[in-house]
Design goal:
alpha+beta, Immunoglobulin-like, 4 domains, five-stranded antiparallel beta sheet, four-stranded mixed beta sheet, 32 strands, elongated
């Protein structure tokens, strides 16, 4: 029993010791090299203090040729952080596939890494002072499939200046990926500095794709000059060196027919998903934004098809312009399309957001696959009753808060009170009529000047803007509608509906907000207390109408309702 407790204690202490190590960042600049090449191991830590990495675990399979270190200090909001970095240059002792044990730095340790070491390349050029090698990751690919092209420049001399041409094959799109990598290798008992660069090539037509020869021109240090002389390095003009690679040919196959008739998408991976927080509340007439992302490995963003949601009963979709971004991981391009779509339910009850399917060709398995965003069941509530105003307000009216509050139902008054207020109202009406008659008689007896006949000026555009601003601030859709219609009449010279005003703005974002306001008022009959006016005022305040417009430009947005 005592022995079992001892074993258990040892196991617990061992697990605690392993978990006490925090993980640090460690990476190899390349994961595949040849026996006569070197590779750099980069280690980074922000909590190592003065500790140094323990490199003894590397000595079994590698010679440590050199090491360097540095640190980066950053201050954010008064807090200082220090990141230390070590770069170790390794030379493999033999060919094979090696697992690098975790590197320990103080109380931290890295994850395990793996490096593949290939045999020496005996078919390459040897003995030359400078030469180029070009490699493609495949001899045969499909139209629009990514071809990874690797160019290596080998130099024995010290380079002072140089330039390497980019590939320009006919009928193909070329994109440079990753960062240039520098390392050392040995060929024919000579040490070379190697500069490695990668390109992604996308052929646009079937047949034979020819990659023209790469050309390098540079200036190398002249070993004939006396390097011991003072200021020699400043005046060393060097000597010109040149190198050309061989041309490369790749067979390009035509696209494979897709049963669904969809676009041709040759990739290593394609996925579609909804990103961001999913809204669980849907209400008639209230827009909800969906963010959908389509991502591929081996295709650029421009090659991806547009995300389109099919027509669905009870729902209307208003997509924004998609955001396209192409990244890379050093081996493949990564295409990303992010699309925001406003969903507006026009009926309550249980509805379904439809399934989205993208069919693509898997270049690694040679088969047709599909990426899916599953359908989603939603429950749409009836629109909430409005807290303000009537949706049938006159176009040129502007209802104040006091007027809205005064519209109260007096049906709960007692009968005696009702009769009292009734007679009081009739008496007031009689006095008002008598006053009107007296004023009319006085006016007939007095001469009327021309100036007194002036009609009070209607509110100008600036006043309508102020009224719209006030309505948007308190999220009052009824008064916002009235202000917009009054402004539209003055700005365009005729009485217009909100839909016609939206069309005349010719500004999609502002038009969408105006149509959304119209939809809110239409769907709830009496407005919607949950309507938010901040975005409408933001877009409207920066808008300047064209007063010379004679005709209404048809909006490119779908009508919100027939």
């Amino acid at each position: 029993m005592v022995a079992m407790f001892r074993l258990l204690a040892i196991a617990v202490l061992s697990a605690w010791a392993l978990s006490s190590y925090a993980e640090i960042s460690a990476r190899l600049e390349r994961e595949e090299i040849r026996i006569n090449e070197t590779v750099r191991l980069v280690i980074e830590s922000d909590s190592a203090g003065e500790s140094q990495p323990d490199l003894s675990v590397l000595e079994q399979h590698f010679n440590i040729l050199g090491r360097s270190s540095g640190q980066n200090i950053s201050i954010v909001n008064g807090a200082q952080s220090v990141t230390r970095r070590w770069t170790i240059e390794l030379e493999p002792k033999s060919a094979g596939s090696f697992g690098l044990e975790p590197i320990v730095v103080g109380a931290e340790q890295s994850r395990r890494l793996r490096l593949t070491v290939l045999p020496e390349n005996t078919s390459a050029s040897t003995g030359a002072e400078v030469f180029l090698e070009v490699e493609a990751d495949a001899d045969s690919i499909y139209v629009q499939q990514q071809l990874l092209l690797t160019v290596k420049l080998f130099l024995r001399a010290r380079l002072l200046d140089g330039s390497l041409s980019d590939p320009e094959p006919n009928g193909a799109v070329v994109r440079r990926i990753g960062q240039d990598v520098r390392y050392e290798t040995r060929r024919a008992d000579a040490t070379y500095s190697v500069f490695e660069r990668r390109y992604a090539v996308f052929p646009q037509q079937s047949g034979v794709l020819e990659i023209p020869a790469f050309q390098f021109q540079g200036i190398a240090e002249d070993p004939g000059q006396n390097n011991q002389q003072m200021f020699n390095s400043l005046f060393n003009q060097g000597r010109r060196i040149r190198a050309n690679s061989s041309a490369l040919q790749v067979t390009v196959k035509p696209p494979v027919p897709i049963p669904s008739g969809g676009p041709w998408l040759p990739a290593k991976k394609v996925q579609i998903e909804q990103v961001g927080q999913q809204s669980e509340e849907f209400e008639v007439g209230q827009p909800v934004t969906l963010k959908i992302q389509l991502q591929s490995l081996g295709l650029t963003a421009e090659q991806l098809p547009e995300i389109i949601i099919p027509e669905t009963p009870g729902l209307r979709f208003y997509p924004d312009q998609g955001v396209l971004e192409t990244q890379d991981n050093g081996e493949d391009v990564i295409g990303i399309q992010l699309k925001s779509i406003a969903v507006i339910p026009n009926q309550s009850g249980g509805l379904t957001l439809p399934e989205l399917i993208v069919t693509w060709w898997n270049t690694e398995t040679g088969s047709i696959e599909t990426a899916r965003l599953p359908e989603r069941k939603i429950v749409v509530k009836e629109a909430a009753a409005a807290a303000v105003g009537s949706g049938n307000i006159e176009d040129d009216s502007f209802v104040s808060d006091s007027a809205v509050l005064s519209r109260q139902d007096a049906s709960g008054d007692r009968p005696a009170q009702s009769r009292f207020w009734k007679w009081l109202a009739l008496g007031s009406l009689g006095l008002w009529l008598i006053s009107i008659v007296i004023m009319f008689l006085i006016r007939l007896r007095k001469p009327v000047s021309k100036d007194s006949d002036a009609v009070p000026a209607a509110p100008n555009n600036n006043e309508w803007r102020q009224r719209l601003r006030a309505a948007c601030r308190v999220n009052d859709p009824v008064n916002a509608r009235a202000a917009l219609i009054g402004w539209g009449r003055d700005a365009y010279g005729s009485a217009l509906t909100l839909e016609q005003i939206a069309a005349r703005t010719e500004k999609p974002d502002l038009a969408r907000e105006i149509l959304n306001l119209d939809l809110v008022l239409y769907s709830t009959h009496n407005g919607d207390s949950r309507w938010q006016g901040e975005e409408l005022w933001k877009l409207y305040s920066s808008f300047r109408p064209d007063n010379n417009t004679e005709s209404i430009v048809q909006s490119n947005l779908q009508p919100l309702y027939p």
